[in-house]
Amino acid sequence: MSIPIRTCLALLTVSAASAATPDLHLRFDSPARQFTDSLPLGNGRLGAMIFGGVSEERIVLNEGSLWSGSPEDSDRPDAAQYLPEIRRLLLDGKNVDAERLFVAHFTCLGRGSGGGHGRNLPYGSYQMLANLRLVFPGGDSLPSGYRRELDLATAVARVSYDLAGVHYTREAFVSAPGQAIVIRFTASQPGHISFSVNLDREERANVATSGAGNLIMTGQLNNGTGGNGMKFAVHLAIRSVGGGITAEGVTLRVNRADEATLLVTAATDYLGFAGRRTPDALAAANADLARLADKTYPQLLAAHLADYQALFNRVRISLGAAQPEAEIKFTPVRLTSFAGGAPDPSLAALYFQFGRYLLISSSRPGGLPANLQGIWADGLDTPWNGDWHLNVNVQMNYWPAELANLSDLHQPLFALIDSLQEPGARTAKLYYGAGGWVAHVITNPWGFTAPGEGASWGATATGSAWLCQHLWDHYLFTRDDAFLKTAWPILKGASRFYADVLIEEPKHHWLVTAPANSPENSFRMPGGTVAHLCMGPAFDMQLLRYLFGATIEASKILGVDADFRKELEDKRARLAPTRIGSDGRIMEWLEEYGEPEPTHRHLSHLWGLYPGNEITPQRTPDLAAAARKSLEARGDVSTGWSLAFKINLWARLGDGNRAHRLLSLLLTPVGTAPAQPGVRFNGGSYENLFDAHPPFQIDGNFGGAAAIGEMLLQSHTNAIQLLPALPGAWPEGDVAGLKARGGYEIDLSWKDGKLSRATLHAARAGAASVVYGDKHRDIRVQAGKVYHLNGQLATVN
């Protein structure tokens, strides 16, 4: 049964009204000039970027599993025989010599990621799927009233304008229930919808018509070894009301229709740890389209709204009074004004919800995790291959998953972690002679777990430890014992590896990792030589304390492996501690080396402050003060994702005003950030709010969203901290639906900078400890009950 279009429009109106505070639109008054001005749409697998042209429109299409390359043996079979000598050199203080030996015999076999250009190597690269191009008549006429917008409340993008007395509207969304990109064309007068459409791709693709109103693109990517790799297919179908559809070669033309709808389905034959799991990409794309044969546009839209809003509407946020519609500026103007100091608290709320929108749009159960660009890429050489970097980037992508009430969208990352166990066990054995499993700095859909191709960054061997934090954190938020049972072998295997490879350093007899990096950073040896390879950096030690602690607790909860638990307890107690240097800062390395780049973008030695929980102002005030001093020394201005990391760190230190100051830098238009001596990159935001590394990296969007949540709610200290880092710029507001560890959902309201009301929804029975400022309240909660507290943490009705 079809839904009348007026009912469907009413659904849109109600949905938007329910989230009217704050405004949830990205708004523009001109077409996009480049990819980072266009509007992102996605369903976790399919993506589309809307440019919004008038005479011509280009829409970039993406499919989340479309990778060149293929599985390869990237492990050196004789690497382990060089490990003792690398360690001996490090123990003797000959780090540079150890690094040379590492480069020669301990990097990956082959060219690895190709320095981030692995498109034609076995490592491969994530790539765009195709261009969908539209051409409209009347190209010489000037439109008026042009508007382009993305509505986060509905995940619908719209382009509208007036031309020659007719009002035109294009509406687009990517349906998860329908597994299709849907684009609808309407006009204020009948018979005025005319356009041509085709598909193209720079290489490795063929396009053909198929029946009336259908285009099919098929292709096969390079496998990196001189052959053909992954196959892909796109099926585009036109439905029109009135008028006619003709074909001219591989171009379809719609002539004088009353309205028209494009449906685009796509698939690959990727058979890895996630994806369509089908050997026939074209059959899969055709099957998706066939399932939509009897669906009207209103039905497709209603199904899309029901699916999307079930996720998006879990959290509502307002950071100030709503602006009247007439006063809301276009997004680029808002960015410029906010960066210049104009107050706009609702922009932070919009950015928080935009981060949630991007995660919903790029990470769904059954698909691949969000990569360095989510699922959106324009071109074949995606920056850094669009892969998963394990020394901060893919983890940052999922920082908001639990806190922002999108826990189920964590699953693609868990699937990736699970898939790395088998190749990671081989890497552990061949490089370290160790049990368990390991992943280093980079990985791809083909199971790459070897060290990177360069010692300066590729020696970091704690990528798997950091990935495991997400498993344990998911358990802490959900208290899902069934999930913990599935995660246990992964936690145990990772801990087994690190327990096997630790060595004793001679000065303090601590257990440390070797060889190791503090990710992508360098240090100056006493003689002045710059080196990268080291033993036991603070980053590794903090990660292993967390991993061993999580594995110990999981063992207790599940009642398993008591002997292994005891081994981890003994070794955890001997790990090199986080220390404060003579300059009052957290020591990044075992020795107080000089810093060639004092404002380096990575903040790995502060992992124990965030996302870990080793350093807190309440429990470790001296370390917290040293972390603050470290942050001051690093400086504020940095690349986009680094700014997001810093905002989270300042929030954990309880400094909301400093966090907000850095948020204004994160939301600064690209290229306008203030200069800072020694800073390599200046980040910020592109006009469509995409994060700038630069270039575009989506981790900063996710990290920024998580940071806004951390400013309002924290739960890493076995207590639920309400408004722990509220900035003066947000004197009033409310948020509903944030999640806290322990299985709690929290609503908060505040006025004049002070908490007025808090509501705790308990999913499980237990004891909740709630903290607001110097106030503390312990509550025995029952499953399914709701508890209301006032600003004094007293119970209210």
Structural descriptors:
Immunoglobulin-like, 20 helices, 7-stranded antiparallel sheet, 9-stranded antiparallel sheet, alpha+beta, single chain, disordered N terminus, globular, Glycosyltransferase
Beta strand %: 15-25%
Compute the CA-based radius of gyration: 27 Å
Described by strand count, sense and barrel closure, the largest sheet is: 9 strands, antiparallel
Uncertain runs are 1-20
Helix content: 25-40%
Blueprint of the fold:
Layout: H1 5-18, E1 25-28, E2 39-42, E3 46-50, E4 56-63, H2 83-91, H3 95-105, E5 130-135, E6 144-151, E7 156-163, E8 166-175, E9 180-187, E10 193-200, E11 205-209, E12 214-222, E13 228-241, E14 244-248, E15 251-257, E16 259-268, H4 281-290, H5 297-312, E17 316-318, H6 331-339, H7 345-362, E18 388-389, H8 393-397, H9 400-403, H10 411-419, H11 421-432, E19 442-443, H12 455-458, H13 463-478, H14 481-501, E20 503-504, E21 511-512, E22 523-524, E23 530-531, H15 538-558, H16 562-573, H17 621-634, H18 640-652, H19 656-666, E24 684-685, E25 691-692, H20 699-712, E26 713-714, E27 720-722, E28 733-740, E29 744-751, E30 754-762, E31 766-772, E32 775-781, E33 786-790, E34 795-796
Parallel strand pairs: 27-31
Antiparallel strand pairs: 1-6, 2-3, 3-4, 4-5, 5-10, 6-7, 7-8, 8-9, 9-16, 10-15, 11-12, 12-13, 13-16, 14-15, 17-28, 18-19, 20-21, 22-23, 24-25, 26-27, 28-29, 29-30, 30-33, 31-32, 33-34
